Amino acid sequence: MTRPRPFAAAAAPSPGVARVVAALMAGAIGLQGCAIGPDYERPAIATPAFYKEAPEQAGGATWLPAAPADALERGDWWRLFGDADLDRLAADVDAANQTIASFVATYRQAQALVRGARAARFPTLAAVGSARRSGGRDTPEQSSFGLSLEGDWAPDLWGRLGRGVDSALASEQANAADLAAARLSAQVELAIDYFSLREADAEIALLERTIDGFERALQIVRNRYDAGVVAKTDVLQAETQLASTRADIANLRANRARFEHAIAVLAGKAPADFSLAAAPWVQAVPAVPLGVPSALLQRRPDIASAERAVAVANDQIGIQRSAYFPSLTLGASLSSGGSRIGDLFSVSGALWSLGVSVAQTVFDAGATRARVAAAEAGRDVAVARYRQTVLTSFQSVEDQLSIGRALAEQQVLRRQASDAADQTEQQILNRYRAGQLSYTEVVTAQASALSARRALVQVAVSRQVSAINLIESLGGGWDVAAPVELESSMRPAAPR
Fold it and tell me: Which of 147, 201, 247, 428 gives a 20 to 30 Å CA spacing to 135?
């Protein structure tokens, strides 16, 4: 910063200079309350009164009953599924996931920027010391010492620094929301991978039981072939079916390994250092409290982040508009010097200076106007993105409600189909043993029954995934203890 030219250098300031500087300082302090630029208001959003796809209850209510709603408010939404292994893994993800760690560091960085923006509103004070030894051929050697205390202050006349603090604070809140979104995303990915792994375990167990049955059927066919009752083709068909089913198990085991590797990375571990033993699959599908659509504006972290981005863009307008007005810098210094160390603390040798500088852009070829226009356009972009984020969140909830309802209906029908296919398989096998049917019909019935059983298992995991996606669409378990304010745009403005 350029040093203001001192008005005086003497033992005491002249009364005229003192009055001028005092008047300037008083005026600067008074003008600090002025803020250029529009005050922030949250963009208006038209929210529906209810969800179109919400299941209608008795009396026309669209609240989906389930576990208590406070289970979501506490943040541990995965506990709704009642799986102890998932609970343990979720804790590992929160503690060791590196993506979350990067967002935590970004949030800390944003907090530091807020502190820096606030510090810019205060004077700076610097102490400068010097020591020099000089001499020459015809000049005796001598020492000189100097000590000065220098201060600068740029009053926030037009609210530029105050707007900067507000902008930094809004950015901090946006980063806190981004952190919540990253944590929710990692938790959702973990839950989906975990239940997909358990579904693979269930299918593997189902195929292993099916293989036992196919092996017994193959032995029956071989016995009948050895007895000359059936042709070799029956044996070949039974062997083909058994080998295909074993190949399906190999594919399922490969899929399970991939899910296990993904869970390891989410938990911050190398796949080689992590394993998850097969365990019973808890097929619980919790009903999720919906609330009202307007609650999404407070619950979803991505919406909170987008709304805070609007606040940041709004503050930038004021910052750019402040360039139309002059800037004022006040400077002061107190220095002393001499040929001895003791001279530094001598009052008689002290010099003071007070200075003020005023700068005003006279001509910039419209650069300031262009920056203001760019900031206004940036706010319009942020508003449009915010509104689009809200609309997309409504769509996501409606989609998951529709999918969840369809899957619930499918599960009932899949169970009926599986029961019927099991009975058909047994009847066809009995008739084959009695010599009434060819083995081709047995193979067809067995394949149909196996397909129905697998479809029933798959629809169960699809329902769990749909419930997880619905929870994510509703904002997950936004933790009220986290450093994210749900009503962030309603908080009082930072003092200017």
Answer: 147
